Amino acid sequence: GDPLKGETRPGVMVLLNPQSGSGRALHLFKTQVQPMLAEANIGFSMFVTRKNNHAWDLVKEENMSKWDAVVAMAGDGLLYEVINGLMERPDWKSVIQKPLCILPGGSGNALAASLNYYAREHCHSKEELLLNCTYFLCKGLHAPMDLVSLRMASGKRLFSFLSFGWGFVSDVDIASERYRRLGSARFTVGTVQLLTTLQIYKGRLSYLPRKSPVHVQTPPVSLLEDPLLVPFEQPVPKHWTVVPEEEFVSIIGICHSHLGADFLLAPTAKLYDDAIHLFYVSAGVSRMGMVKFFRAMDKGNLLVLNNPHLHCVAAKAFRLEPLEPKGLMTVDGEVLPCEPVQGQIHRRLARVISRS
């Protein structure tokens, strides 16, 4: 990776959500992060978010040339806001290359867990995860990171750094919001609740397989274009794969190894491997099959499950067309309405502070 520019570092922009996780983000920053930044002689300016999309609006208007890096101290949702705010700026090409840093202060903390996994750092506690990510920031190295461009049938355009979901896993994420004070245990509670009635979601899933993991693609000149996608009113190109099943329990497209601090979903994923790792569970899976699915995610051995209802594939683009408006969709843990959606990977579009 590359170090942060300059001998003297004027500082970093810190965006902090005081409500994230169990509500301890500000306390953790003052007691754990701030002393390490002082030791590393890194100045900072803090912006405490007060409402939904506050960070989105802030980075969209802020003079970003003042900062060496943008730090999100929260769960993954705050970084999602930052990325989308930056991508709406007229100078997006330069500002999206500003190194981004995640300091885990939420309940999911998927990117933080992924970055530690890539660095072969196995964290056994939230404190350890935060300590390592702060150390990455103090060291100042950063590396490229893929982003996914998502287009909704309603015309909405979004950028995702982590995951897209529909069905069971998304429902758990949203339903467990009421247990936010429990931290990561909220997902366990939500899972147990929703397992009592496994819902079926009818839709058509298509994807463009990733032919080779070493494929090199530079970002398009204009991000108004997604060259792999065609308009929704057209069928997907003939060289795409259309999944024969049309009834699902869950569909997830993920760009990183972890879906949460305790959920290692894609152990083969890398920071920039030009792939959306698609996992889908077709209808007919038993409740016990879903329990085994979550247990395997906890241990990181999902791929050894010999379950005919579980499918995994690496894709460069996908399209999902719900055949009924059922359930909610999620992007990076944030809620989307249920409607047709398609997306494609843009390799190395952003930069993230990591070990290398």
For the termini, the CA-CA separation is: 4 Å
Shape: globular
Amount of helix: 25-40%
CA-based gyration radius: 19 Å
Order of helices and strands: EEHEHEHHEHHEEEHHEEEEEEHEEEE
Protein structure class: alpha+beta
Biggest β-sheet, characterized? 12 strands, antiparallel
In round numbers, the mean pLDDT is: 87
**In total, how many beta strands?**
18
Q: Unreliable stretches, pLDDT < 50, 5 or more residues?
A: 2-9, 212-218
* Helix run count: 9
β-sheet strand percentage: 25-35%
GO molecular function: ATP binding; sphingosine kinase activity
Protein name: sphingosine kinase
GO biological process, one term: cellular response to growth factor stimulus
EC number: 2.7.1.91
Description:
The protein is 26% helix and 30% strand. The protein is built from nine helices and 18 strands. The strands form three sheets. Strands 1, 6, 7, 8, 9, 10, 11, 14, 15, 16, 17 and 18 form a twelve-stranded antiparallel sheet that branches. Strands 3-2-4-5 form a four-stranded parallel sheet, sandwiched between helices. A hairpin with a 2-residue loop joins strand 16 and strand 17 (334-336). Helix 1 runs parallel beside helix 6, helix 2 (54-61) runs parallel beside helix 3 (76-87) and helix 7 packs across helix 8 (185-195). Mean pLDDT is 87; it is low at 2-9 and 212-218.
